[in-house]
Amino acid sequence: MCLTNFVFKWYALINCYTLILLHLLSYFYVCLSSIYESTINYHNLNYCKLTLFDQIPNPVQLQLTRPLAFFDLETTGVDTVSDKIIEIAILKVLPGGEIDKYHAVCNPGRPIPSEASAVHGFTDEMVKDKPLFSAIAAEIGAFLQECDFAGFNSNRFDIPLLVEEMLRAGVDLEIEKRQAVDVQRIYHKLERRNLEAAYQYYCNKTLENAHSAMADVTATYEVLLAQLAKYKELENDVTFLTNFSEDGKFIDVARRLVEKRGRICFNFGKYKDMPVDEVLRKEPNYYDWVMKSDFPLHTKMKLKELKSKMSV
After folding, report:
1. What SS3 string covers the chain?
2. pLDDT tens-digit profile of 157-191?
3. Which in 29, 114, 149, 150 has the greatest CB count within 10 A?
């Protein structure tokens, strides 16, 4: 009987200490979460606070001299000239390591094709009461002020489409003054797979909510940090990463003008690979045709600059 009472008392004591320990661990978790949360700012002016992936591991601290803005777009399609933005998510990493986030959903001003809805899940009904992109373009431009850019396939898709949408809204991002790190180009050069595979490979995680813009952009940021930790040949420097991830010296974001052998050439049509200045001197009407045709606004802007330099 005494032995039974002794065992019962020890069992009760152990349970008591276990409960105290669990309460202490819960308290410390809440405290740490509050401290971490205070380092992240949210810019969702008309939208709900998004907390997905807030606990971002940092195997490497990016070496930055100015903010690096990772961003991802969900759109009505893949044409960087005519398609429209539905969702934009930006994760801005400041030189000190702090993270600033922006997220917005827009009404594209046109029906969303079913093929696009099948990818990202947005429907006409979901965005009918959202603002047009032009209504938030100025605030996006302000958020991206003094930032370099980064993304996944951003050099070929996200940057050209964002620049086009911003120009339509009367905002010039002055892309030539920014550097652009394409995490997909680094990945394809060194591993050659898509974002979900990159996230699994580098971060040992499954990407939940793929094609949700904030999930994709946060995963892209994590992948770059993991790439810097894994590959000794990569320098923790935005200029190096920009040069490493680029696949050509393009003058405009739509890649219609390209530098080859020290000359700026057309990268399309019957004069592909021919120097712009030679073509415009040989056939001046070609300039007028480009300016009146359905080419990207940024392409037209850069071609106009090149033509003005010729006449100086």
Report:
1. CHHHHHHHHHHHHHHHHHHHHHHHHHHHHHHHHHHHHCCEEEECCCCCCCCCCCCCCCCCCCCCCCCEEEEEEEECCCCCCCCCEEEEEEEEECCCCCEEEEEEECECCCCCCHHHHHHHCCCHHHHCCCCEHHHHHHHHHHHCCCCEEEECCHHHHHHHHHHHHHHHCCCCCCHHHCCEEEHHHHHHHHCCCCHHHHHHHHHCCCCCCCCCHHHHHHHHHHHHHHHHHHCCCCCCCHHHHHHHHCCCCECCCCCCEEEECCEEEECCHHHECCEHHHHHHHCCHHHHHHHHCCCCHHHHHHHHHHHHHHCC
2. 999 999 999 999 999 999 999 999 999 999 988 88
3. 150
